[in-house]
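F.,

This is the one I mentioned.
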């Protein structure tokens, strides 16, 4: 009877772990999608900022060029952080999938 209880307990635990692994994979997919979307938006902002800085410099508007250059640096930092997040999310997703396959 104790063996049967232990077997049932192990099966329940295994099913629970599998469910958690599936939820973790779904969470990683959502994170990856969100971070990729943010990275794409940051890259678009960088492109716009570069154009603005160039136009301001050509027009001789130094104050506006400095302001746009600060925005450009901020957007570049954001893009770098988002790229790092995307890389981490991909690595985490890959690792979770490997672990899930190993448990099968």
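My design for it:
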């Amino acid at each position: 009877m104790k063996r049967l209880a232990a077997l049932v307990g192990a099966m329940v635990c295994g099913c629970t772990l599998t469910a958690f692994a599936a939820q973790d994979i779904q969470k990683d997919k959502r994170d990856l999608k969100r971070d990729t979307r943010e990275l794409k938006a940051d890259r678009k902002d960088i492109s716009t900022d570069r154009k603005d800085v160039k136009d301001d410099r050509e027009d001789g508007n130094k104050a506006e060029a400095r302001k746009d250059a600060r925005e450009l640096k901020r957007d570049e930092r954001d893009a770098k952080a988002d790229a790092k997040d995307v890389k981490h999310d991909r690595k985490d997703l890959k690792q979770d999938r490997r672990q899930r396959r190993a448990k099968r």
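The mean pLDDT is 85.

Talk soon.
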